[in-house]
Design brief:
The complex is a heterodimer of chains A (about 575) and B (about 160).
Chain A: H1 10-40, H2 47-120, H3 126-172, H4 174-177, H5 184-188, H6 192-201, H7 204-208, H8 212-219, H9 223-232, H10 244-252, H11 254-257, H12 265-296, H13 300-325, E1 339-345, E2 351-356, E3 364-369, H14 379-397, E4 402-407, H15 415-418, H16 427-446, E5 451-457, H17 459-469, E6 476-482, E7 487-488, E8 501-505, H18 513-519, E9 525-526, E10 535-536, H19 567-575
Parallel strand pairs in A: 3-4, 3-5, 5-6, 6-8, 8-10
Antiparallel strand pairs in A: 1-2, 2-4, 7-9
Helix pairs in contact in A: 1-2, 2-3, 10-12, 12-13, 14-19, 16-17
Chain B: H1 3-26, H2 34-51, E1 63-66, E2 74-83, H3 88-101, E3 105-112, E4 118-125, E5 131-137, E6 140-146
Antiparallel strand pairs in B: 1-2, 2-6, 3-4, 4-5, 5-6
The chains are: A alpha/beta (about 575), B alpha+beta (about 160).
């Protein structure tokens, strides 16, 4: 089931879409003819007329239902054909570049061999040495280009997988196929084992049509049960090779499979990309509608209401737009790493997590937990911040921890921008801690031996401390806090986090943002750098890090905790090193 | 009114002034254009690379990133790497001196990574100029240059 970006014929898909449109025309014509026949019977009388009228009366609505389903199918096929065409164009460009690069590499390798021989000869000159260095530099550049093209190809394979799955899901939806039978009552009476076997045996369109109790029951299963069930369907599987039943589950129940602990992360990634793309498409439509309503709103109250609706639609659009952009945003890594959409929970606000690194195979996994004011609209920014740590690790050992940008909780609003004092309280942290703990447990369930770390900034450290303290079985290797907004009193010391190592960094920040958060916290929260039992990670006061942010403003002399070149970046890279 | 409350009100007043000042500055329309910011950064990067005759790669495409947490604007980050055995301490000293001579405020750091050796890094800052930073180890070199903050948003550079 490996997706080939060059496979398929978009023109044939478009042709099929047109054939369906022609069928719609035939249906409309037929329905009109039948309606005219009903008019012809106006002069009839008696029981035969009643029977005829009743029968004819059902035909137009039935035709309309079929036309509606064909509409939905035409939409799906049109979108699919366009996307496949774009992917194929991109694939041809990459393949052509790969071919050119391979030929250039071969020629350069030959020239380089000759140049090295010349350099080692007795009559070698400085010019020979310069030529060898230049050719070596060319060879390095070509190797880097080849590596970049390989990464682009891998990304295109994932994009094609997503397009194939979206088309499959769209054509299996009830608005195309109509209403599928519900087995919810029968399933509800089954044991867990029978329930899981029955669910796995359902075709995607039937599974997708079951009422929410089926999805809820699946979502509530223990990770060990889910893992055994999933593996029994055809092994763990990989993004490229897996069982048809596993594929059907991803397509039919993406919102469940995408967040189901015990399911491998390649499958969660595919399911979450499908869910997030759907939510993003809906947000685009909602924004268009909100803009139209705003321009047409009449009267002061109407405009204010339409303005609020437009702001809400724009906020949601920005969040989802940035989250899906995580799949393709540029990162400064030394060696490319695969990405996975680890979690996606559609709601108000939408929440999720994106990994740079493969959670099914990485030797180390690190969750980056941001603080106040963060949302999915910041996904790519935090991915870039995490990749700075990963680049640092790659330089030291060639390997990097998989960094998960975890935006899985509704963080308190930025106090400085809004004046909202929620950041001084624990409510957001307690709600977020439950989800963070569950997401960490998901990694631990599928990867019992992986090194698992948490790096938390500002109020993220408040949330993370509660999460880690709640579950000693998470077996956290390193817990790093940067500019902590304080640790709740229910976590009295580093030992209570159950982490094998806890590190805490606190710079002498301009405006003392973190210190303010701790000082005015209610209930009071502790500074993890002061007698807490954590190893202090040095910031050199104002000599290096001097602001609360992870990344500082380049038009200042400020330095953030994870800006390149800082002591805290090196310390964080070391603490979470695979 | 107790002392904590006074501190709180004082903090809010300071933050309010700072926020207003920042907002005024960012709305003033005096931000650099992206092309100019990139040109300055590339010139600084080339100058820095020319300082040591190493097997430098071509100047790469930059990554667009936010100017700072939560703020408007975009900066362009260039990363050049070399996988080559080096004497990281000697190189670090050389680049620190080079940047200091150019008037940048250089702040070095180092961290012992045990079996992977010592990482030498530094940040170099100056008002109204691109940033520099590096990380050197015995395994290779990472040299970053960040452009000045330019008008726009990183979202403008997402495909």
């Amino acid at each position: 089931m490996t997706a080939d970006p060059l496979a398929g014929d978009p023109a044939a898909v478009t042709k099929l879409s047109r054939a369906l449109a022609d069928r719609q025309d035939d249906l409309r014509t037929g329905a009109t003819t039948v309606a005219r026949a009903a008019d012809d019977a106006a002069d009839w009388e008696g029981a035969s007329k009643d029977r005829f009228s009743a029968t004819v009366g059902t035909i137009a609505p039935a035709a309309q239902r079929i036309i509606g389903r064909l509409d939905a199918a035409i939409d799906v096929l049109g979108t699919y054909a366009d996307e496949v065409q774009r992917i194929q164009d991109e694939a041809e460009r990459i393949r052509a570049s790969q071919l050119t690069t391979a030929m250039d590499s071969a020629i350069t390798a030959l020239s380089l061999s000759a140049a090295k021989l010349a350099v080692s000869a007795k009559d070698a000159t400085d010019a020979d040495a310069r030529q060898a260095r230049r050719l070596q530099s060319d060879a390095d550049d070509l190797a880097a280009t080849a590596s970049r093209l390989d990464a682009e190809w891998d990304a295109l394979v994932r994009r094609r997988t997503t397009a194939d799955r979206a088309a499959s899901a769209g054509l299996s939806a009830t608005d195309v196929l109509g209403v599928a039978p519900s087995y919810s009552g029968t399933l509800g009476r089954m044991s867990d084992a029978d329930f899981l076997a029955a669910v796995a045996a359902m075709p995607p369109e039937v599974l997708a049509a079951q009422d929410p109790s089926v999805a809820d029951r699946l979502a509530g299963m223990p990770a060990e049960t889910v893992q055994a069930w999933w593996d029994g369907l055809g092994g763990r599987g990989t993004a490229g090779e897996h069982a048809a039943a596993q594929d059907a589950l991803i397509t039919a129940l993406p919102a469940v499979i995408g967040n189901l602990n015990g399911v491998p992360y390649w499958a969660r990634d595919q399911a979450n990309r499908l869910s997030a793309q759907r939510a993003y498409a809906q947000a685009q439509d909602d924004l268009r509608v909100a803009r139209r309503r705003y321009t047409r709103a009449i009267g002061g109250h109407g405009q204010v209401a339409a303005g609020h609706a437009l702001n809400a639609a724009l906020l949601r659009y920005n969040q989802l737009n940035n989250f899906v952009a995580g799949a393709r945003t540029d990162l400064n890594l030394r060696y490319p790493l695969p990405r996975q959409m680890v979690a996606f929970r559609d709601g108000q606000p939408p929440l999720g997590a994106f990994s740079v690194g493969d959670l099914d195979s990485a030797s180390s996994v690190t969750f980056l937990v941001p603080g106040m004011g963060s949302s999915l609209a910041d996904t790519t920014q935090y991915m870039r911040t995490g990749s700075t740590v990963q680049q640092s690790q790659q330089q030291m050992s060639g390997d990097a921890s998989a960094y998960v940008t975890w935006l899985g909780y509704e963080s308190p609003p930025n106090f400085l921008a809004t004046g909202d004092t929620a950041v001084l309280h624990e409510d957001s942290a307690r709600a977020g801690a439950a989800t963070l703990s569950a997401d960490l447990a998901g990694v631990r369930a599928t990867r019992p031996d992986v090194q698992l770390n948490v790096v938390a900034h500002s109020y993220g450290s408040t949330t993370a401390a509660l999460a880690l303290a709640s579950d000693s079985a998470l077996n956290i290797h390193s817990f790093v806090t940067l500019g902590s907004a304080g640790i709740p009193s229910s976590v009295p010391d580093a030992a209570a986090t159950h982490a094998a190592h806890m590190y805490a960094a606190q710079a002498n920040e301009k405006w003392g943002i973190a210190a303010f958060g701790r000082t005015f916290s209610d209930p009071h929260r502790a500074d993890p750098t002061q007698g807490f039992g954590a190893t202090e990670m040095h910031t050199d006061g104002t000599r290096t890090v001097n602001v609360h942010d992870l990344a500082a403003d380049p038009d200042s002399r400020n330095v953030g905790y994870l800006d390149s070149g800082t002591k805290t970046l090196l310390g964080t890279a070391k603490a979470t090193m695979p | 009114m107790n002392s904590l409350s006074k501190s709180f009100l004082g903090f809010v007043a300071v933050v309010g002034l700072l926020t207003t000042a920042t907002a005024c500055a960012s709305n003033g329309g005096d931000k650099m254009q992206p092309d100019e910011a990139k040109q300055n950064a590339v010139a600084f990067l080339r100058e820095t690379m020319d300082h040591e005759p190493l097997a430098w790669p071509e100047v790469p495409d930059p990554v667009a990133t936010r100017c700072s947490d939560g703020d408007d604007g975009v900066r362009f980050q260039y990363l050049v790497t070399i996988d080559q055995k080096t004497d990281p301490k000697e190189l670090a000293t050389s680049f620190e001196e080079f940047w200091r001579a150019k008037g940048l405020d250089v702040r070095p750091s180092q961290e012992d990574f045990g079996k992977y050796g010592v990482a030498y890094s530094a940040t170099a800052r100056a008002d109204g100029k691109p940033w520099g930073s590096f990380q050197f180890s015995r395994r290779g070199i990472s040299l970053y240059v960040d452009s000045q903050c330019a008008e726009g948003s990183p979202d403008d550079y997402e495909d």
